[in-house]
Design a protein that fits this description.
The protein is of the alpha+beta class. It is built from 19 helices and 13 strands. The strands form four sheets. Strands 1-2-3-9-6-4 form a six-stranded mixed β-sheet, with helices on both faces. A three-stranded antiparallel β-sheet has the order 5-13-10. It starts with 11 loop residues before the first helix and ends in a 5-residue tail after the last strand. The N terminus is likely disordered. It binds protoporphyrin IX containing FE. Protoporphyrin IX containing FE binds next to α14 and α19. The site of protoporphyrin IX containing FE has 22 residues, from α14 and α19.
């Protein structure tokens, strides 16, 4: 499935052919086992003109929150309702696996948590999730501020250069800058390796980008040609992919060896009593090896690290990219955010404590995740027959889906559902401060913070699965708090020092999707020092 934004119009004859093909497939498949479920009559050509999730949204408004989409030789059930999503992700989590997604990611992540089969997942989740404990997160704030500080210094140097030429602004692709920043942070946080990508290039960095590029390509390519025997030797991009993988794997193997060589026996409690804020290596790898290093084979550890590297890098970079994109169109919200940063931080760097006071910045981060969820779709495949419940709107009786059914959970649709959000497409971080029942929606309890006491950021529990930027249920993201704090720190430190504007019009920023939503040609911005002298 190629779902790339392009302004090129399909020639009419080709559109008609694609439409006819699509209708034929839709008709053939609509008589299948999903009974009375509405079928999206969309044309295949819809898929080529813009990202897939836009079309899924239109069909959601037309067909309701559970419908069948047929394209190519495959059919997917598209779900955009919180009750049904909760049923799939939480109440019946183990009746589903990752289906198509696992097929795509397994060659890259092996038996890492995201594509892992249920048995492996159960074992590894139990070991990995405690690695993200509160003291670890507190220690990570220093990594976030150090790395964001490096990025700010880089921008300041560029601005100094510009000033010597008489200018006061620089033009930068902030998406690329955020990508480097997020790579440095994930490397240090997960395996205590400094990619240093904000300031330099290296074969390992190139290999990480090459691998991400391939993951992206695979998630948007319809035929898994890489599974064809000999493809890895014959197809040049597959040869390059395996070369890149080897570079990263060698690097990870070296880090694992080092961590194992310096391993100390400890139990969780002792590890948690460590002075995390002062130890040299607070990384997840150190924790995993110290806890269970002897039990886990190197291959499994490598898969775990690779998974976290990929899962935690582009997602966070994308949040920062869209937060700036949205802010740049709302100068009054930039000023409000800067006023908060000035009053909470002044000239200081954020700390674990001050993140708690940066409420508006935190809400900008979550509102950006609402409008641009990463990834916009979650993918599941039913392992057995499942009876889905009825949803909030229409579809009151629910449907029975047979084993093998592929499902797209459209987080994008949920997050922009006109049934749950006022002005669903508008950037209003303040909406999360309004803790009131949403009006006019039967059965919708709205946001209820008492469901998740002490949560620093709105989540799927508080919203009863209407807002799920990190998924939900047992396979929810393990790095959610890491990513949220990282984004809060990076954004606060950017706004503390700089004013930012888009270089062109917002419409000129085209979207492309694969695993995440990103721009086609970068997020080109103008950056200036803050006029108040910060
Ligand atoms: C899973 C989003 C950052 C590691 C997930 C899932 C989502 C998600 C939606 C659930 C996928 C599904 O149910 O199919 C995000 C976003 C991030 C982010 C939006 C940044 C803003 C991170 C970071 C890490 C990480 C920083 C690691 C340090 C993982 C892992 C899983 C996962 C290991 C699989 C969990 C499991 O299956 O048990 N993430 N993530 N993510 N994420 Fe994240």
């Amino acid at each position: 499935i190629r779902c790339q934004s392009t302004s090129t119009k399909e020639p009419k004859a080709k559109r008609n052919l694609l439409d006819n093909l699509s209708n034929l497939l839709t008709n053939v498949l609509s008589g299948g086992s999903l009974g009375s479920m509405p079928v999206a009559e969309g044309a295949v050509s819809d898929l080529f003109g813009r990202p897939l999730f836009f079309s899924l949204y239109d069909w959601f408004l037309e067909h309701g929150s559970v419908y069948k989409l047929a394209f190519g030789p495959k059919a997917f059930v598209v779900v955009s309702d919180p009750i049904v999503v909760k049923h799939i992700l939480r109440e019946n989590a183990f009746s589903f696996d990752k289906g198509v997604l696992a097929d795509i990611l397994e060659p890259i992540m092996g038996k890492g948590l995201i594509p892992a089969d249920l048995d492996t997942w159960k074992q590894r989740r139990r070991v990995i999730a405690p690695g993200f404990h509160a003291l670890y997160l507190e220690a990570m704030v220093k990594v976030f501020t150090d790395c964001s500080g490096r990025t700010a210094e880089k921008f300041e140097k560029l601005l100094d250069g510009e000033r010597s030429r008489g200018g006061d602004a620089i033009e930068l692709d902030l998406e690329a800058e955020f990508s480097s920043l997020a790579l440095d942070i994930i490397g240090l946080g997960v395996f205590n390796y400094d990619f240093g990508s904000v300031t330099k290039e290296s074969p390992v960095i190139q290999a990480v980008y090459g691998t991400l590029f391939e993951a992206e390509h695979r998630s948007t390519f319809y035929i898994p040609y890489w599974k064809i025997p000999l493809a890895r030797w014959v197809v040049p991009r597959q040869r390059k992919f395996h070369y890149d993988l080897k570079i990263i794997n060698d690097c990870l193997d070296g880090l694992i060896r080092n961590a194992k060589d310096s391993r100390q026996e400890a139990d969780v409690e002792k590890l948690q009593q460590r002075d995390y804020l002062n130890i040299k290596d607070a990384s997840v790898l150190r924790f995993l090896v110290d806890m269970r290093g002897a039990d886990v084979d190197d291959r499994q550890l490598r898969d775990d690290l690779m998974t976290m590297l990929i899962a935690g890098h582009e997602t966070t970079a994308a949040v920062l990219t869209w937060a700036v994109f949205l802010l740049a169109q709302n100068p009054s919200k930039i000023r409000k955010a800067q006023a908060e940063v000035d009053s909470v931080l002044g000239q200081e760097r954020p700390t674990f404590e001050s993140i708690k006071k940066l409420e508006y910045i935190r809400l900008i981060v979550v509102e950006s995740l609402r409008l641009y969820p990463q990834p916009p779709l979650l993918i599941r495949r039913a392992l057995e027959e499942v009876v889905l419940p009825g949803g909030y709107k229409g579809d009151k009786d629910g449907y029975t889906i047979p084993a093998g059914t592929d499902i797209f959970i459209s987080v994008y649709n949920l997050h922009r559902s006109p049934y749950f959000w006022d002005q669903p497409h508008d950037f209003v971080p303040e909406r999360f401060q309004v803790q009131k029942e949403s009006e006019g929606i039967e059965g919708w309890a709205g946001f209820d913070p008492s469901r998740s006491p002490g949560a620093l950021y709105p989540n799927e529990i508080i919203s009863d699965f209407a807002f799920l930027p990190f998924g939900g249920g047992p396979r929810k993201c393990v790095g959610d708090q890491f990513a949220l704090m990282e984004s809060t720190v990076a954004l606060a430190m950017l706004l503390q020092k700089f004013d930012v504007e888009l270089r062109g019009s917002p419409e000129s920023v085209e979207l492309v999707t694969g695993a995440t939503i990103h721009t086609k040609n970068g997020l080109w911005c103008k950056l200036k020092r803050r006029s108040n002298g910060h």
